[in-house]
Amino acid sequence: MIPKPGSSKKRRLGIPVIADRVVQASLKLVVEPIFEADFQPCSFGFRPNRRAHDAIAEIHHMGSHRYTWVLEADIEACFDTISHTALMDRVRRRVGDKRVLALVKAFCKAGILTELGQQQETTAGTPQGGILSPLLSNIALSVLDEWFMDHHQRSMATVRQRDARKQKGLANWRLIRYADDWVAMVNGTKADAERLRREAAEVLAPMGLRLSETKTLVTHIDDGFVFLGHHIQRRRKRGTKTWTVYTYPSKKALNSIIAKVRGVIHPGQPDLRILLIRLNAIIRGWCNYFRHGSSKRTFSYLGHYVWHRLWWWLRKRHGGLAWRKMRTRLMNGGWEFTADGITLQEAAAIPVTRYRWRAWDIPTPWSRRTTEPSPTA
Predict the structure, then answer these.
(1) pLDDT by residue (tens digit) across 213-237?
(2) Cα 209 from Cα 78, distance rounded (Å)
(3) Helix residue spans in the chain (DSSP H)
(4) Interatomic CA distance for residues 290 and 288, integer angstroms
(5) CA distances from 251 to 21, 34, 283 (A)
(6) How many separate helices (H) and strands (E) can be counted in the chain?
């Protein structure tokens, strides 16, 4: 049992032995192309050639085209509550080999070894920590993708169909899902988003999944919401009358990186070179993830925090030297922290760039690029 981030609850982590990992990886190579042929384009998580930035870009595009109400959905303990029966039924639709089906079922019911050395059965859910788990969760949650896409293809696929729905007072919507995190962008009213919430809950129920009553919210895009670590909000562009959707690193994400930096820079760390290597890896990884949004000010704040934290560490290590002596002896008379050719990465120096919206025209390794026009809002 491991703690859930930002919560007092715990989740089960099942780590397979090496032999099982080899089998799961081999099984994934065989099964994944089969299901990728059926997966819908509104799903972006744990799929080849797709990433979190594609989901954020999709939200940015839809929010800029009058999709202003957002259904923020949270599935309670998604990976732990998926019905094995319903999941295997969906697998059997595409896989007929009984040996493969037996392997998938065996991995789902492998159980967990507790801290006391006892075997705990798993009657539901997919084993988190396994190579096959992300694919199995996508197979289970594809029931939601198919329901949304079925409605979209029948009545919202073209501009004429969407305009006709608007004239009748009906809403249009678009699903964006990344693993078990998903939002529905609604071009309509708050009541339309609330009705969509109830319908989505009914779709997920046969898979043993339910939406959290407290964390599933309907929000206006002008009020902002958090998705995949980004705070997304529509604001008026400075100096103009136009409204634009902006994405920023969320406060939770910023607090997380600050806590990680504090954990690395502590008085017990003896070597500045090792410290700089660890900090540079943390800063580059975090900033590269958030560099496609309006993050320059946040990067600058992070850089200042790391610099002052390192300054505090140096004074602790060297007995509170004076400012001028500290710069002369340890910083070569300048302001950069350097040790054996390793220089502290400046977070503000990492460029901020716009991520290209790829719509639904994202090919997989097993299919050709579609020749159909990309969907527009």
Answers:
(1) 888 999 999 999 999 999 999 999 8
(2) 6
(3) 18-36, 52-63, 78-81, 84-92, 98-108, 133-155, 159-167, 190-204, 251-264, 272-290, 296-317, 323-330
(4) 6
(5) 36, 40, 16
(6) 12, 13
Residues 6 or more apart whose CB falls under 8 angstroms from that of 100 comprise 27, 30, 31
Specify the 3-state DSSP secondary structure of 4: coil
- ∠ CA(273), CA(277), CA(280), 5° rounding? 130
8 Å CB contact between 276 and 339:
yes
Nearest to 171 by CA among 240, 68, 261, 81: 68
Residue type, 215: K
Kindly state the average pLDDT of the residues 192-199: 96
pLDDT at 6: 66
Helix orientation angle between 133-155 and 18-36, rounded to the nearest 10 degrees? 10
Whether this prediction's pTM lies above 0.85 is answered by yes
What does the DSSP 8-state code read for residue 331? S
Query: Which token pair is 350?
Result: 């990492």
Q: Measured between alpha carbons, how far is 164 from 182 in angstroms, rounded to an integer?
A: 27
Of 372, 302, 354, 261, nearest to 61 (Cα)? 354
183 bridge partner residues: 72, 176
CA 197 to chain CA centroid, nearest Å:
21
